[in-house]
Amino acid sequence: MAAHPHSFYPTCLLLDLDDTLYQVEEIPNIVRSNIQGYMRTKLKIPEENIASVCLEYYTKYGTTMAGLVANGYSIDFDDWHAEVHGTLPYSRLLKRDDQLRALLESIPLPKFIFTNADQKHAETCLDLMGVADLFQGIICFESLMEEGRKQGVVNDNKPVICKPTQQAMELALKAAGAEAVTTVFCDDSARNVSGGHAAGMFSVLVGRTSNDCDSHLQVPSLHTLREAMPGLWSVPPSTDNKEGLHVAGTDEDASRVPHVVRRQGVSVECAAPSRRREVKVAAG
Ligand SMILES: [Mg+2]
């Protein structure tokens, strides 16, 4: 488990997209069905093996697609994303979320989406939820792959880079221009949160609790962040007033929020908002 300083000034918020920024049960079900359909019709994987291969690769490689590529399947990434995400009935499934918008807008930190999904999927979701303009960048499949190629992380032996690997965490932090120790990372996947925790970020599991997750905090939804991490909203400290702010909340705060699990009592001071920056996201 990565050590984390007793107190720090958060400077960046990395947020997963699917099942973290929104929870719509139908979406992962459709995506799973689309993935299995792709494996069946385009990759000609025998029907009886599809479910187990899907699960095995997802577990071992981070995403099913990463596992397929690592095991020799030739995949046109754009075609994969067009089938797996592009066919989602987005406008029926996702609605504008003004409550989420108000919450994100109120957090005085630069925010980045950090997803294993493709850029188009992320943009479509954010647009429909009405929060696209609140993010300084989208760190996604395309940008991780491009940066990974530049740095030699993506190669013949590791053709797809994705959460929860440490390389993906490092690339994301670099894309956001952030330091791990001052970054707050929220994700619904216990495995991803553990990866962020190992990379040194303040890690928050969203939407579930898990005993098998290395995290600093576990919350039922992003909407409880205000109670669970009040320091995220604290007024930036002046030079003579830097004490007494606790991003992770007090034990008393946590006890008032249903299902909030405080894994470690990290006290955190809140920083002045960092200069906003744009992250260049590669196309296809
Ligand atoms: Mg997710």
Automatic annotation (TrEMBL):
Superkingdom field: Eukaryota
**Residues forming coiled coils:** none
Task: Name the InterPro entries on file.
Answer: HAD-like_sf (IPR036412), HAD-SF_hydro_IA (IPR006439), HAD_sf (IPR023214), Pyr-5-nucltdase (IPR010237)
What is the protein's name according to its record? Pyrimidine 5-nucleotidase
Native organism is Coccomyxa subellipsoidea
